[in-house]
Sequence to fold (308 residues):
Amino acid sequence: MTKNYDVVVIGAGPGGLTAALYASRANLSVAILDRGIYGGQMNNTAEIENYPGFESIMGPELGEKMYASSTRFGAEFLYGTVSEIKKDGEKKIVITDEDTYETSVVIIATGSEYKKIGVPGEEEYSGRGVSYCAVCDGAFFKDQDVVVVGGGDSAVEEGVYLTQMAKSVTIVHRRDQLRAQKILQDRAFKNDKIKFIWNAQTEEIKGNGDEVTGLLYKDKETGEEHTIPASGAFVYVGIQPLTSSFESLGILDDQGWINTNDQMETNVPGIYAIGDVRKKDLRQITTAVGEGGIAGQQAFNYIQTLTD
Ligand code: FAD
Ligand code: NAP
Fold:
């Protein structure tokens, strides 16, 4: 069945929810499609302390609040995994696993997903000790030893979070300097439960057939191999864009991020992109929200030009 809306927003993270708020408040009919629950990456974040207005707020709680705001003016939240967008003159056809949507404007806010390290054991023990989400799985490791792989904001922030339940947290990083923000680094260095292993190339997640038992790494300076005993391995080695459904539109760069101008316009009139999925430097909730506001307003302006 084909459903008609003025605007279809793909992705209900902070970017998509804000775009829906602005477009629906401008009296446009808006569908927000998501393949899962609203909130996006905020659902995988424990504490957020850099979103203005809140000293600190749990990620899922901020998602609930944004969802309430975004649906207040009539935007409809609908489940659906978008597999393709087709152009039909000025109309766009958005195809999901179950439905088809016809719309004048599409706002892509599909964000990103975690990268994998790609070592033996990672796939095999995924869900059996290997995790990409401390908020979701941290509680399973109460009073146990865990390792965290990575050196960016996610690894360090979630490593600190894990100290609330784990007995020890060992952060394994491939260089001798962290990429994470200074404030997060300082917090981790001060935490007695956190130990760092530097210049360590992760070689394997070890297990006993049922669950994780440790992490094997190679010291890049000496070439020696060591195993850290652990029952949990949290992987935070970066993110990649969720854009495979949009390849045919010609809006992606060579790494899959979406190119836009300052008005969030892609090179296809009426198709906008916002948030983490855009090619940009700062991927944060504040930037996703700001871009959502711009795209929601641009949707209104664009539709005006069609009816003039
Ligand atoms: P996302 O939040 O990624 O939302 C994208 C949505 O699109 C998802 O709900 C997804 O299900 C949906 N989707 C994807 N593909 C499809 C499809 N084909 N069809 C339908 N739906 C689809 N930022 C901060 O400012 N402060 C923090 O403290 C902070 N902590 C973080 C901690 C971690 C562990 C991580 C990973 C990130 C953190 N960030 C933080 C970054 C922040 O979460 C992101 O910048 C922000 O969520 C991006 O919002 P977004 O709307 O672009 O996308
Ligand atoms: P990131 O910033 O890309 O960091 C990835 C880390 O993993 C880097 O330290 C990288 O090492 C390491 N790495 C990459 N590939 C590896 C591999 N194959 N093996 C081992 N290590 C590997 O990713 P992120 O930390 O997930 O952050 C993603 C985005 O979300 C960023 O924009 C970040 O700012 C944002 N974020 C913000 C907050 C916050 O504001 N509080 C919290 C979390 C995330 P190198 O350093 O050597 O490259």
